[in-house]
């Protein structure tokens, strides 16, 4: 999957983000600034405490703040000016830790410059963030050890890496068993033409390096991750006629996925799960991805992979998890939600999100018979 002129591509991307772009308004498309869904209240409040220069130099394409973060060790691939790291610093707490790594010297300098400001703002006695300059395909060169992080995040930067397999392989290596890679990126509706893949500006705009979305699934499986869980998607618009002509009929989407490093010992059959409730910001309902929404007290049938993910990850204590086929222990009067066909295609999800919402039937119920 490595792009031609890999080293030259890296240098050009570094120049684009380190020299040509001074603020998000300098971008020619919305690929690196679109947000896939509204930010939760806790994240909005945390964002208000981030330094204005860090915000101005931020380029991202989706929400990369997963749930249940207290005390976690998090690695941000392509951390840029540090916006997401400083958000996460507040959500993991003073005893958690956040590492940001980026290849662009100017961006790392901006992030480092404001460490003391943020620690004082957050009321921390010592920093719980660090910023490193390096390549996300070579995390070992930056001194990052095997199985040292609970979560790896990335916001619209994997497309900038010539070798996507190496990025996912390294993320898998540094994650602890049960750990998660939660990331947004740009995906293409087809494999890109040579003209697009060699276009300097389209690389900087996060489009020339976009994966064909199906290739993410094959690479994740090859590396060892669980099947990608599609979280959400939003459309990419290109407001430049010249670039549109080069791109042709290819479409692009910003999508957020979550991948898990599931230990073999956690894999079994399908199951039934009940969300206990109480995760901060998601007390009554946890929208895990586009296919699974868990409501407090509701019995949900899940496939073998989702059962293994919940059983092995940091979410294990938030759920009652049991083998499928027996709902005798479900709370009295509890609803039961059946598994449905999964949506894997981010372009299909876009169409679904854009479709009109069906009207409720008389009596105020929506959906099939027996729906709560």
Describe the model.
The protein has 372 residues and is α/β, with parallel strands linked by helices. Helix content is 30%, strand content 21%. It has 13 helices and 14 strands. It has helices at 6-20, 41-47, 52-56, 83-92, 105-113, 115-122, 164-174, 194-197, 200-204, 213-223, 241-247, 304-312, 346-354; strands spanning 73-77, 97-102, 129-133, 149-155, 175-188, 211-212, 229-235, 252-260, 271-275, 285-287, 293-295, 299-302, 319-323, 336-337. Strands 1, 2, 3, 4, 5, 6, 7 and 8 form an 8-stranded mixed beta sheet that branches. A 4-stranded mixed beta sheet has the order 13-9-12-14. The longest helix has 15 residues, at 6-20. The radius of gyration is 21 Å and the shape is globular. The model is unreliable at 1-5, 21-26, 326-333 and 360-372 (pLDDT under 50).
Brief synopsis:
The chain has 372 residues and is of the alpha/beta class. It has 13 helices and 14 strands.
Which stretches of 5+ consecutive residues score pLDDT under 50? 1-5, 21-26, 326-333, 360-372
Radius of gyration equals: 21 Å
Q: Termini distance?
A: 46 Å
One letter per element, helices H and strands E, the order comes to HHHEHEHHEEHEHHEHEHEEEEEHEEH
Largest sheet: 8 strands, mixed
| Number of helices, counting only DSSP H or I runs of 4 residues or more | 13
The total beta strand count reads 14
Shape: globular
Mean pLDDT: 86
Helical percent range?
25-40%
Q: What portion of residues belong to β-strands? A: 15-25%
Structural classification: alpha/beta
- The oligomerization state is single chain
